[in-house]
Amino acid sequence: MIGSSYLKEGVTELIELRLIKKSKFNLRDDLYGIEELVESIKIHGLLQPLIVRPAEGYFELIAGSRRLEALRRLRWRKAPCIILDVDDKTAYEIALIENLQRETLDPIEEAIAFKKYVDEYGWGSVTELARRIGKSQEYVSQRLRLLKLPDEIKDLIRQKRLAPSAARELLQLPKNEDRITLGRLAAERRYSVRKIKEIIEDMKDSDLHESLTLKSPLKDRYKIVERAIVVIRTAMIKIDSLIEESSKDDEMRELLFSKRFALHNMLDSLIKYKMRIEKELRREGVL
After folding, report:
1. For residues 49 and 59, what is the distance between their CA atoms, to the nearest angstrom?
2. 191 SS3 class
3. Would the CA dihedral through 252, 255, 257, 263 be positive or negative?
4. Do the beta carbons of residue 183 and residue 199 sit within 8 Å?
5. What are residue 217's phi and psi, to 5 degrees?
6. 3-state secondary structure 206-268
7. Is the dihedral of CA 20, 23, 29, 35 positive or negative?
8. What are the tens digits of pLDDT across the range 216-254?
9. How do the domains of the chain map onto residue ranges?
10. CA neighbor of 7 nearest in space, from 38, 52, 69, 46
11. Is 13 exposed, middle or buried (0-12, 13-18, 19+ CB in 10 A)?
């Protein structure tokens, strides 16, 4: 693994920012949190030097793209830099390690960076990459598996709405449309990995819609409410018949009308409750 000892071999100097260009292996394009970083540097100064390597007539940035942008916004002319004379592979590894240590990459960005190292640039196997960056082989392999997911699920991971461990369970589903459906639901309902496993296990030979229907406790409640509404409507019809039979008995008619009124209020309440359940079931994708 490349560690801080390797960085100690570099030379630290003040370099003019105009001489520093972005890395051709930039691991991230966004400038998330750049304003906070600008304020931090304004108050505390630059706590960690940029890492660069010499090129023809300029210095190429290895690590510190957000710091470099913040310094430019603050109109710094020069910045302390650790200068390393390294090849492309080593420069990429250093950039990757620093981003992993600072936790600046989201899981999908990590996965893309790992894939470029192994496949696009062909610098080594998963095992070799894991050793070089100080991660387990399983960690690297699990990140790479995320790239098999649909783009919509990847976005949920990047937005921190769906944990990578939960998203990986979706790969058990053969169809992308099912992965998206269950992934959306898992993000909305904050399903645990165990819950997702249960839903997938219950699918077996059925489709996802049937499985979600079976797993929803609201579905049973919905059926009970439907039956209750039918029972009350039936009771009201029977009471109407009794009221008609009691046309000459005012006391009985008054009693029956009061009971019918109570049933009518109960029916209204159940219908409203049924509508709330329907709304929830539609949100879950069950109805």
Report:
1. 14
2. coil
3. negative
4. no
5. -65, -25
6. CCHHHHHHHHCHHHHHHHHHHHHHHHHHHHHHHHHHHHHHCCCCHHHHHHHHHHHHHHHHHHH
7. negative
8. 577 778 888 888 888 898 888 889 889 988 888 889 999
9. 4-105, 149-215, 217-283
10. 52
11. middle
C-alpha separations of 15 from 78, 88, 239 in Å: 5, 21, 93
175: nearest Cα among 209, 140, 219: 209
Instruction: Name the pairing type of β-strands 59-63 and 50-54.
Output: antiparallel
Residue found under tokens 């309440």:
269
Which residues pair with residue 12 across a beta bridge?
82
pLDDT along the chain (287 residues), means of 10: 56 92 81 86 93 92 92 95 92 92 89 94 93 94 96 94 95 91 89 88 62 62 86 87 87 91 92 87 65
Query: Position 122: which residue type?
Result: G
Question: CA 196 to CA 183: how far, in whole Å?
Answer: 9
Sign of CA dihedral 31, 35, 36, 39: positive
Report the amino acid identity of residue 39.
E
Q: Quote the tokens at residue 204.
A: 């077996």
- Look at the block and give the residue holding tokens 């960005």: 109
Question: Which CATH topology does 4-105 take?
Answer: 3.90.1530
In the numeric block, the tokens 């998206």 are attached to: 180
Residue 23's Cβ-count burial label (10 Å; 0-12, 13-18, 19+) is buried
Measured CA distances, 198 to 15, 208, 213, 284 (Å): 57, 12, 13, 16
Which pTM value belongs to this model? 0.66
How far is the C-alpha of 19 from the C-alpha of 58, rounded, in Å?
A: 5
- CA-to-CA separations, 118 to 90, 148, 203, 260, in angstroms, rounded: 14, 16, 35, 75
